[in-house]
């Protein structure tokens, strides 16, 4: 119960942050698209868009370091925490330098025969790529600091930094709207500068706040722990980097066959999907330290229970926003954007479906990482990550439309889910039959029922604001009904009721 309250509190903090940042981020995207135009927005998505992938790389790599820190916290070992931080810092400095070299080599080939960019825009695209490389270095070096913040479950700091970042991005968007000169260059430079500034702030904060953040390589060394962390970080990095390559590879392959205007549609779809998915992602950020600490304390049963409940709740959080958006997507895009790039709606629809499939199994991946035996899982996952790009290339050569890549990646997500289930059973002791019956089936039925009933206004009303509001209201009503009656088991309903009652009592006591 104490774990549940802590997760609920941290999740609540992050949701306040998300309520602010989602609206601002979506409005910022509208401003940037209008200021740059579809062509330059597409170029930024191809070249500078990789900066966005660094957020994914950073969080995934931080989770590897966080696993050891949370595990040691569960053991109550401060000296081990200091050793873990120092080893993690050394590892990530090496990784940062390697990545810079690799990106410089890759950049040569990207700009000499792979990317389809207009000749008059190639120079600014190269400059944006260099901004990306500088951001990459600082992002990777700061991974141990992000791991410390997450291991301490300091979600208030995470929320404050995220709100500050979003507001500064809005300032940048407003600035380039009225700026003279090359707006794409200015936007790329300011975005890189913003990421570096925020990462440096995290480092300074951690050195002042947390006792284990003390760099002394000679004093805090441990060869056995170094081998364990190197192996774990290496396999984690393999899975993370191939996943990043697969995601960025989608941008490259779309650009090669269809040009930057289709990349603009992809950029908008990714932005919408990312913002809507963030409500579920922040819950996992609050949950992951609990999984590792539970495993570190030797309580595997609690770890699995928290993992399966996390799968449900994160899926339901996606469902809350995805149902009305999937039903009324054409109206939403027409209202939101001045000009909707072609293929945006079909890209976004398929991407949201893929997110729903993946969300059911994300916490199981965290459980596998908490146990620590990740070598085979990451090996097979890495091979699977690049496979869809190869398949897509042959389909595009055969003349298939741009949305084909998203259909193929949905199939990839299903295969990855099966692999995750296998290793969760083998390494964590997960009961697949229990998971399928009490997590997967309940989630799918809840979503299907809520979607069907929420779509009723489409048969009686014309597209417009009245129908949109009707869909939103119905989707919320049927979300509550289906999740409460179908999605949750009786003990889970009781637990949530107790958490809410406890939260209300505490709030009244604080204001009494």
TrEMBL record:
A Gene Ontology term for the protein's cellular component: plasma membrane
Keyword terms: Cell membrane, Membrane, Transmembrane, Transmembrane helix
GO MF terms, alphabetically ordered: antiporter activity; xenobiotic transmembrane transporter activity
Alphabetical list of InterPro entries matching this protein: MATE_fam, Poly_Biosynth_Transport
Highest taxon, organism lineage: Bacteria
Cellular localization per UniProt: Cell membrane
TM stretches of this protein: 12-36, 42-61, 91-115, 127-148, 155-178, 184-201, 313-333, 378-398, 404-424, 439-461, 467-488
UniProt membrane topology term: Multi-pass membrane protein
Designated name of the protein: Oligosaccharide flippase family protein
């Amino acid at each position: 119960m104490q774990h549940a309250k802590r997760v609920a509190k941290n999740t609540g903090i992050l949701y306040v942050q998300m309520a602010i940042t989602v609206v601002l981020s979506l409005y910022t995207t509208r401003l940037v698209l209008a200021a740059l135009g579809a062509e330059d927005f597409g170029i930024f998505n191809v070249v500078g868009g990789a900066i966005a992938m660094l957020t994914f790389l950073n969080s995934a790599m931080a989770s590897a370091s966080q696993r050891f820190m949370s595990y040691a916290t569960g053991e109550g070992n401060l000296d081990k925490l200091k050793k873990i931080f120092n080893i993690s810092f050394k590892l990530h400095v090496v990784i940062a330098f390697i990545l810079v070299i690799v990106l410089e080599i890759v950049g040569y080939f990207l700009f000499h025969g792979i990317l389809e960019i207009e000749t008059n825009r190639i120079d600014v695209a190269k400059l944006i790529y260099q901004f990306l490389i500088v951001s990459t270095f600082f992002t990777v070096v700061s991974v141990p600091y992000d791991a410390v913040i997450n291991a301490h479950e300091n979600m208030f700091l995470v929320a404050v930094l995220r709100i500050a970042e979003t507001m500064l991005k809005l300032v940048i968007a407003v600035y380039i709207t009225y700026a003279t000169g090359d707006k794409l260059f200015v936007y790329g430079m300011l975005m890189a500068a913003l990421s570096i500034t925020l990462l440096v702030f995290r480092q300074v904060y951690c050195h002042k706040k947390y006792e284990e953040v003390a760099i002394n390589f000679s004093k805090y060394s441990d060869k056995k722990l170094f081998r364990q962390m190197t192996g774990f970080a290496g396999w984690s990095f393999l899975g993370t980097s191939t996943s990043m390559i697969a995601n960025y590879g989608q941008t490259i392959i779309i650009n090669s066959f269809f040009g930057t205007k289709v990349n603009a549609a992809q950029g908008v779809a990714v932005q919408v999907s990312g913002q809507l998915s963030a409500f579920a992602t922040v819950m996992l950020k609050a949950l992951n330290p609990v999984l590792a600490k539970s495993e570190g304390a030797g309580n595997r049963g609690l770890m699995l229970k928290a993992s399966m409940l996390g799968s449900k709740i994160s899926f339901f959080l996606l469902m809350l926003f995805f149902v009305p958006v999937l039903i009324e997507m054409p109206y939403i895009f027409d209202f939101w954007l001045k000009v909707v790039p072609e293929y945006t709606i079909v890209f976004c629809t398929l991407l949201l479906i893929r997110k729903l499939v993946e969300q059911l199994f994300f916490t199981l991946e965290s459980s596998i990482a908490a146990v620590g035996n990740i070598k085979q899982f990451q090996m097979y996952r890495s091979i699977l990550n690049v496979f869809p790009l190869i398949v897509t290339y042959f389909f595009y050569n055969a003349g298939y439309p741009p949305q084909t890549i998203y259909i193929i990646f949905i199939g990839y997500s299903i295969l990855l889910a099966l692999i995750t289930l296998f290793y969760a059973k083998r390494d964590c002791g997960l009961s697949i039959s229990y998971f399928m019956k009490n997590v997967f089936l309940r989630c799918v039925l809840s979503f299907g029922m809520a979607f069907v009933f929420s779509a009723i206004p489409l048969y009686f009303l014309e597209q417009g604001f009245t129908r949109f509001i009707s869909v939103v209201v119905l989707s919320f009503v049927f979300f509550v009904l289906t999740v409460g009656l179908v999605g949750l088991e009786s003990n889970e309903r009781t637990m949530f009721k107790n958490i809410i009652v406890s939260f209300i009592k505490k709030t009244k006591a604080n204001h009494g």
